[in-house]
Each structure stands twice: as C-alpha cells, then as structure tokens.
Amino acid sequence: MNRLRKVCLVTGELYPFTGGGIGRLIHNLLRHSIDRATPVEFHLLLPHQLQLREEAISAACGRKVILHRARSLDRPQPDIGFDGTYPPPWALSSTPWHGQSMEFMLRLKDLAGRGTRFDVIEFPDYQGWAFCTLQEKHLGRAFLDTEIAVRIHSTAGIIENFERRHLSVEQLGGFELERKALLDADRIVAHLRPIAEFNCRFYGFPSSWLERVSIEFPPVVVGQQHGAAGNFRRQLVFGGKIQPIKRPDLFVRGAALFMKRCPDFAGQAIFATPPAESVYERETMALIPKDLSKRFVFLDVQGAERDRLLGESLVVVPSDHESLNLMVYEACGAGGTPVLNGTCPAFGADTPFLDEVNCHKFDGSCDGLAKALEKAWRGKAITPVEWKPDSPYWESSEERGFAPTIAKSEPLVSVIITNYNLALHLPEAIASVAASSYPNLETIIVDDASTAPLDRLFLDEIERNQAQHPTNLRVLRNEVNLGLASSRNLAIQEAKGRYVLPLDADDCINPGFIELAVRALENRAEYDIVVPTAAYFLGDEDIPELRFCDYATFLGDVPSLGLLENRFSCATSMMRRSLFERFSYNQMLSSYEDWDLYLRVALDGRRFLVTNDVHFYYRLRKNSMVRSVPPQRHAELLARIYEALPRPLPPSVHLFGLAAARSLPSHLASAVTQDIEPRPFRHEIIDGANSLLKLMPGVHQVLRRTMALTRGAATRGKPEARPLRHELADSLNAALTPVAPLKRALKRVLLSQSRR
Amino acid sequence: MIEIPPPSSPSSPDADSSQDYWRRMSGHAYRQLIEGREGSGQEGYRRQEEVISGLVTGEQRRRGHELALLEFGCGFGRHASYLASLEKVAYHGYDFSEEMVTPLRQQPPQGMLPLGDHLFVGPDAGASLGERLFDFILTVSVLIHNPPQRIRPLLEDMARLLRPGGCICLVENKLVPFTVYENNWHQGCWLHRYLDSIGEGWDVHVGHDLISTHDVYLLRPNEQPRRRLFLLGDLTYGDHEPQPTSEATLDQLGIAKARAWAASVEGSLRDQPAQDLKTIEAEELLRAERDQLKRRQNLLSLAQELAAIRAARPEERRATSIAPQAASAVSIEFDAASDSHWAHQDPRFSRVVHVMHQEWHGIRAAAGYLPGHKLAIPANRSIRPGEVKEAIDRCGAVMARTVVLHGWSNNADELLHLMRRTLGPSTRIFAIWLGTTAQFHHDIEQDGLARLIDLRRRGFLEGLGAVKPDLHVLSSAIDREVILSLPPRLSETPAETPRGFGGKAVIPMPVDWRKNFYTTLFATSAVAEVRTIFVTADFKRHPEFEGSKKAVHLPFLDRWKLFRLLGEVDVALNTSLSECQPMVALEALAFGVPCLTGQLGLGDLDRHPYQQKVQVARVDSLGAVRDALQQVVDLLQRSPAELTGELNDYRTAYCARGLQRLGEFLRL
Predict the structure, then answer these.
(1) At what angle are helices A453-468 and B277-311 packed, to 10 degrees?
(2) pTM score, two decimals?
(3) Most buried of the four, A338, A666, B127, B307, by CB within 10 Å?
(4) CA A241 vs CA A20, A245, A273, A276: distances in Å
C-alpha cells in the first residue's frame, strides 16, 4: 500500500481526556498506527457535547490528528438541510441515540460536500451511532467509496441483557438501533472470534453476517514491556466497576470462601476502583462476612502505583461478559496473575488465555472461584499472556465492493392508492405521484365501495378520462366494502410492477422517493423494503414550505421493538412485489394491518432501509385523530397480531421488550380519544356512603372483611381491579333492574339526597 | 494534401468556447441526450460498443496480462459501464470536466471502486494522473470536438501516459483527405485528418467502416524513425498479418466522407436562414424527456381536473385547491380590542383562552366580557391551515393551560383537536354552550350540542357548561350548575346618584317572534310616562296601532353606539319569549339602567329584590309587561335612589357570583 489513506474514527471517549474503555482502545489504535509510521491520516469525529482541543489530542497521540465535531441539531441549520428536510431530533424514533446518529451523519455529509472523502469511517457499536450514516450509504446517496465499519466494544443492549436494568421503550429503541447498525455495517471489527460469534447469536444474525466480520487483535497495551513476571501474589484485586455484569458479588463470595479455606493467606481483597455509592454497591458490600469486613477495601490508585498493585496480586475478573477487558492485559504486563471466569467469552477457547499456562480459569461458580484462587495462590508461577496486535484493516487497500452500481433498467413500479370516502384529497395524492421523478410507473386506485357522492363522481371521471387519454392508471372498484387490508391485497394481485408502493388517498409522496427507493433496491438485493421518514401536514401549501406540525420516524426491521411500537414504517413504503408471494395484509385486522405485515416480514429476517430525510407526507385531518385507536382496542389488536405470529419466534426477537410496555410514555397511555366511561350514579352514591363509613373505622373494616368473604372463589386471588363497594353496588343494581319502578324510585330518593 | 483551415468568421467557435461548453455541460443532461439517441434507433452506438469491446479484449489477449485501460475523456461513463466489467481489464477514466463526470461519480460501476484510484478529473491530464501509465488509451468522439491545433498536443499527452508496448486507440471521425470544420454541434465539430498530427515512430492501424459513423485509429510506437500505415481488416487484427497501406489510399478512402460533408454544407447554404443548430440540439434534449413528461402531464392534468370538479362543488367546503394559492390573509383575531376592552380582570384567568366565532355577535360579546384571552375564529367559512397554525401559536405564546370554547362549529372542532395534539394533554379544554332547547328546531343548534356532549363523554372535554339553567336534564354530560355571563366592565363606573325618569326607553331587539318585539313595543308605549322608544328593528307601522308613534328607529347599533345610547336612556326592555341570559340586560346593568326581561331562573340571584322587580312572569301578555314597566317607572319617579341602590348591589353580587362560578367550572 502506498496511497495515503484517510480514516475517520467516531468516538465519544478518548484517553487520557475521558474515562472509558472505548476511549482507551481508540487511543491505543492511534498510537500503535502512528508509532509504526503508517501512511494513514486520522480524523476524529466527536459528539457536539464533547469539547476537546485538536492540539491536545495530537500531542497525546504523537502526530497530527484532525478533529471534527458534530453540530447540535437543537436549532434549524439550513446550510446542512436541517430546516425541515430532516426531522428534528425530538421527533426521532424511540431513542435519543437516533438523533445523535443523525448529527454524525449530517456532519460527515457536510465534510464530504467540502471534499473530504474518507476511505474508512469507523463507529463504535455502543449507542448505534452508525445507523443514519449506513442508511444514507446503502440508499446510494453519500459515502459511496467509503467503507463504514462498526467496532464491537459491547453494546448497551448486551450489557442490559446481563443486568436487566430499568426496562423502557427508550431502552428497547436503543437496543434496536445498535442491532441495526451492526447488521447493516459494511465491515464489523471484533477483537476476538468468540465475541463476534456471541454477537451473532445474541442478535439472531444470519451466519453470513460473520463473513463481514474482521477479527483483529488490537494493541491492548501501548508503551509497556510485557512479561515482567512478579508473581508475588500478595493480594486479591477486583479491577472492574461495581456493576452487575462485572459480578463483584461473585468476587466477594469467592474471596471470602478462599480466605476461610486458606487461613494462612494474609492478604486483602481490594476493589481497585473508586466507590460508586450506589444501591448495588451497598447490596454487594452487605455480602462480606462480618469477620472479614476489615480485609475488603477500596483502593483506587493510578499509574505506576496501580501497575505495582496489579503486579503483586491475583487479579480476579469474574464478569459474565467482556468483549476484551484491557485491564487483564495490563495486569499481565505488570506481572499479575489473572484468575478468570472461563465461561466469559473473552477468556474462553480461541482467546489468548490458556488455563494454568498464563492464567487460572474457573467455571463461573463461587466454589470454582475459591478453588482457582487457592490453586493460583499455592501453585507455581505462570508465564505472561502472549499477544500481538494485528495490523488494522484500514491499512490494507483491499476494497470490499459495497457501493451501488448503475441501475441499468428502470423497472415498473406500481403505486397503489386505496380510497374510501377520501376522494376530497385524491387530486393531491395523484399529483404527488405525477410529480415523481421516476418515469416508469403504473397507478392503481382501489375504491373500497365509497359512499360519498364526490368519490363516485371522481371515480367516474377518472374512468371517463382514461378512455380518452390513456395513462398508466387503473381503477378497481370493490362492489362492497372489503376493508383496507383486502383492498390492498387485491390491488397487489393486479399490480404488474417489480415494486409496489401503497399510498392512502389523503397522503402525498415526495417526488424523489420512488427513484431513490428503486435505485437502492435494484442495487442491494439484501434489502426488501425502503421506508420513508414521514411528516404530518395540515394544508397542501405546507409541503413545499416544509412546514410540518409533527413527524413519524422509523428504524426499519426492528423485530423486538416492533412487538410494542410500529417503528418499522408508515403504511407507505417501497416493497418488492415478490414479498407478496409469501406475505399479504391480514384481512382480520381493522387497523394496524401495515404494522402486522411489517412485523411478520421482519421476523422472517427481511431487511429494511430507512430514508433519513422526510419523503412522505401524512395529512392531519380532523378524523384521523378520532380514528386513532383507543387503548383497549390497541391491546385487542396486538393480542390478535401476536397470536398469529409464526412459532417458534426467530432468535432475533427478544421478548424482554414486552415488559417495557408497562413504562409506555405517558402521551401514549393517555391517548386523546381515550374512552372514559361516565361514572355510574350508583358508584357515586356508594363512594359517598363509603367515605361516611370510613369515619367509623371499626365498622368499615368489618364490612370490608365480610364483603371479601362473599366474593366468589373465581375472583379470589385475582388482582383487585375495582373497589369492593363498586361490585356491591353493581350487584345491587343488577338485582334491582328487573323491578324498574322500585329502581326509579330509589334513584330519585338517592339523587335528591346527594344534591344536598 | 490540402488543408482547409477552420472558418474564421467572428461568430465561429474557437477552442476556448468549445472547452467551456464541455466544462459547463451537465453530464446528466448529456447522458439523457445520448440515451435519447440510442433509444431513437441509432444502431451506431451499439455497434460502437461491440467494436471497442472487441479491440480491448483482443489487446488484452495479445498482452496476456491485466490491461490497464484509460479512457481519455470518459464523460458520464457511457463506455465505463461495459468496459469496467470486462475480465482482466482495469478501467480508468479521465476527464477535464467535473460537471460531465458527476453521474459517473454518483453511480460508478463496480469495477471502478475505489473511485479515487479509477477516476481522475482536472484541467491537465498529466497532473491529474500522476505517475500512472497505461497499456491502452482510448478516446471516443473526443478529438472531433477539439480544433486542429489541439490534436497534436493531446496525442502527445496520451503518448506520455503509455506503457512500453501499449497503444492509443482513437474512435473518432471517419477518414477524410483534409481537416474540415464539420458543424456547430456541441459548440463545434471537426473532421480531422489525423495523419497530419502523427509523426515518425508510430505504426498507425486504421479500421475503416468497422462502424458506420466512426473510424478507428490504432497508434502503436514502432521504435523506428519512420511511420508505417496499415489497414485493420477485422477486430481480431492481431491474429493475422496487418495489411500495409499508403497515405494516398487512406485519403482516397476518405473522399466519401468529404463528399457527404460537402453535400451537407450545400444543404445548409441553400436553406437560408440556416436553422440554429443549438435549437435542434435543445429540441433533441427535450424529446428525450418528452415521453416521461407526457405520462406525468396526463396524470397531473387528471389531478387538476379532479381539483376543478371539487372546487365547483360548493358543498365540498373544505376543499383545497391543487394550484398553489396566493397566501391568504390570516383573519383570526386574538385579543381584539372589542373582545378585551370591557373584559373583567382576574389573575386566575391569565392562562385561559376563550375561543368564539367572529360572526356570532351575541356569543362573542358575552365571551368578550369574561376575564382571559380571546380568540375569535370564522364560523361561516372553513378555517385555513395558516389560521389554525396562527391560532395555536398565539395560544402557545400566552402559555395557555385552559381553552374554553363558546358555541360549537366544525372549525372550532378541528382547531381544538389540533390544539390538543400540539399543546399536549396538559392543556385542558372546556366548552360552554350558549343556547336553549327552544332553538333545537335549528339543526345546527342540536347537532352542535350533541357533538359537545359526545366530546365530553369521550374525555376530550374536561367540562361542558351551559348558560341556560337545567340543561343537565337533557344530558348528564352537562354541568348541573349554570354558568353566568358577565356584564361588561366599564372603565368608569356609572354615576351612583339616581337620575330619575326622563321618559326614554330602548328596545334593542330584532323583529322575530322569539324576541317578542311587538308585545314589548306596544306594552312600553302603553306606559304614559314613556315618551320616546328607541328601537333598532325596522318594523311595520299601522296607523291603527298608535303605540308605534312613540318609536324612533335607529340604524344598526354597534357596541360603542349602543353603549352611548344606554348612557342616555332610563329603561331598557328585553322581554323575549325564550332566553338564556340576555346580553342587553347585562349591558344595561353595567350602565345602571334597569332592564326588563322574562324569568331567567338564575338560582339564588332570582331572590334578589332588583331581579324580582325587572323579571316579568308573563312576557307574552301586553298587560303584564306594561304593569311591570309601570312599576319600575313609578319607582324611578318616586324613589330613584332605592332602585339604583338595589341595582348596584345586584350588579356587585352578580359579578362576584359569576366569576366564582366560572372559576369553579374551569377548576382554577
């Protein structure tokens, strides 16, 4: 290789300016490459919040590193198209990381526009920041001769899988963003083969994904001579953070057991980390036996002192999951003796660690750890772990062809406009199709037995017009109302295009979308659907002025989040017609038929691309809100969808997302059109009576207990859905209903009483 | 050998303008033009590709290793598209115009990746390509666009880029015996006699008539101090001995093309004025887009036709035109002077917005006197999106937490739904209905209330109130307790001192039977002390009914005039047959003028002595109204202080009660 290559690393951390393992590794990679004087020009792209100086970084790395910072999108920036062309960050899907990803993409595009073309742009897997940049590339809109790589450091999704912290829709959105970034990347960089395989299994990727993974052992330590064998073994050291995935609990228990079994060991158990003052830390410290409490200490030291501590200790890493763990390599270099959880993929087979050669492994149990510690302490000295950094992929000029080729043909696209009494807006929908830059179109209007006079008039007119000026437009008229799902299915059967685009009669499509989507699907056979980002408009003049009152943004194929929210796509998307040889809209559903279809398609492993900028316009009508689904109906529809899903669910689906439904954002929970039952009068009365009774606590208690006993066995043990007194009132009401005059009289009396 | 220099008339294109032309020409547009030509049956292009592929693969086989190919003047990549996919051929493109290569840069063929190593653009080929050398350098219709003096330097440039053993392949104009300016296409085309520019040290193989439109010139260094000429028989020329030829033979072969050129020039000389070739070219570009446009236009005109049908149907009131409209003026009114001048002040209502309709004057006045912000929207035409946005923006600007709708319309319904969506669930929405069931024969009254009840049941409305008592009998969705409309708040309180009776009455009512105008008029005139009756209605006067003589007709009174009149009269009458809370009575109350009304049923206030004096039990009875008025007139004459005192006390109590009730209803 002789050409100067330009590499841009996107990172939110950088040693020694910030903490974090990602920053440490980026620093090592830069130093390693620079030390060997490779002809690579390094650029760093940082999030807008991170303020670092280019000179300071260049000084720390020993050579000039060019610094770029993403721009915050909190306010419109017309020069980079952020003025209505792109949705604002607050509108972006379920996770704030989506907005950050957008900020990085726009900055990179801005750089490309100014002539900076990178050979490689590398993102961390954490927070899925590569998502928007990858969509832009795969859609053929930018970064065509740039390889977009994602390096596996450990995703938040994997960490959360081991920790099960605060389940929320937001977290699930982040999980899917990270998954999509890994799935769509041109190249994935993993440091160890077992880690790549773990990610493949965890996310349910097809095995072909592994073909895009480069296994590169990184420079885990720079500027340190390894092999300084000390083997004093005076202390036990736990070097990780106090968080569940690092298993400090296992360290405490194992160390305590070891101390009891080996009373002649006089050393301490040291947490070489600053105390976190967290609830979890308190829980962990509570596990320390009273008599040993003095021997468990926190000792946060840095630099040479830390090296000395690690060098004279048994360094315990009980983690369930690590993607590499730089600390162990540091400890080995300093002469320490590692005691490692052999079930953790970073320490198992196919890693530099060999049991009883350069480390001691245990089986993940407490007893196993105590035994391993004893063996490590009493046994003979081990040899230092051996490793050699691979030369990074960006140094080789081998190019993997991922850029699109020229679309040689312009295959037919079938636009399917479904109409039911919405003809009022049909002219705008048709005009938006007519304005499309893509020439080879057929339009099929399916009318689902509209009853409005205007609709019938329009359809007659269209048919009459067709007789005179034939265009590629056809009208299908259902004789009776079949519903949206059936109408779309019918039209798709009639469609001749290689691609289909469903469009509702009151919505509009961006004139560039069809061309963009066809080109992407023609060039990228691995994708089946191109999803437009959607904006809501009120009046027709809003579209040219990019004046939108809301947005709907999507992530494409998101099989886990998709069980909870439709973040797949709006009803309009560009789909391969061949999909409908296997799938069709479910005619049993009166709403969510598009959600259901996308869910089944995604579960089948089909992949979606999503446009970053707005390409679809959704008309906000008075009725479109009235039509929105009330919570009860929402639950019923979802139940119906779930029941019909294919079993078993594919490995890409993580059901923990369903638990996040509890923490749905409040604006979803309190939908505008929520059905609120008026409070029955009988409940008002009994509530009044109840508050009176409460003034006499004894009586209230007795009554309550009596009532509970009279409840049927069927209801016992079930969560108490409504107060007992309401049940009582309801049963009284039911008893009185056959005796209408008595009921009326009673109600009159009670009403007059309650008025006072 | 004859050499005809290119015409040198002032209008003739020169080298610079030709270069400029190509630098500015968009590659996308040119591609469309070429594709148009291909589509319109120019077989030549297909044959050209066949020949070029044949030459390249032949050369590759001859060399036996991967062929480094440079297309000199690659343009939008017409040849790149197939050459880059040939086996063992490494395609490279060079062009001096960035504009022309844009399509290629945007959609490069697989074989050109990474682009940085395969595509070179810049004014100088040597500088752009650096140290790179090539086995096969190809030009296709490049030199024909360059004037004769440029040919030798260009060929020298190419020769410098050639690897040992490589060759230059020109696919350019057909053989001609002399160089000539051919036509104005693309700012100038020439027919070059290339032999003029090729010196010693070259073998030149000429492929004549391999392609109908072009000839092929293959230039190969022979490392000898002489130039050799050969005729290229067929594509696999390497397989057999090249056939030597002479300059004279080649010139002879070129005569055919020269003849054709002469004929075409003759034609253009005859057909004066010559058709502007630029126009022809533009027409061709247009034709290329025509098919695509026609389809679009058909659809578009259909859409426009439908829009026209829609616009012609007045019942589709909310239709929006497809043609871009001139931005229509926004005519919603926020805190208009007439809506806030007489409003009560109360800090609790600072984040309340009252929404009412511009055309419904009575309701607008009533809402206008309430404390809080006012938003007046149109009722008789559909509200425009711009107005909705403006309305929501204004509500956002005052940080509205509570929105109160007075009356119902489609416009209001749409607006409130969008407000709920935009301002979020923390904005609470209430409605007050200002009608009576007596008006239910008007569908709009009945439908409006039904819609409000529906919205209340579904939780969209936090509360639904009415100014007519006992409407909760109709539906439990309506608040049990009545809302009180407030009298206007005057900046100067009227004189506390009683002013007696000056003989002037006012009946500011329209002529309709619900308002009971005639009964009121004749009952009023029956009171002897009343000398003048101001009326606003134009009514029928029969001389037989003498009471009408006292009436003085005033033209339509706006609020300012009405208030001035109220400052002058002694008594007002609004004894209508059915009423909620008549605004005239409240306005009179503000001015300290007693006003007779029917029985309103306002709860506790009904028991107030003032209320008892001015409420008439049987409003349809001339006698009852007359007697009630007589009593008031008597009292005003006998003891004006008593009535004025009672009236002032009633006003104070009424306002306090009204504000308290409204605050309760809105849960402030």
Answers:
(1) 150
(2) 0.56
(3) A338
(4) 11, 9, 6, 8
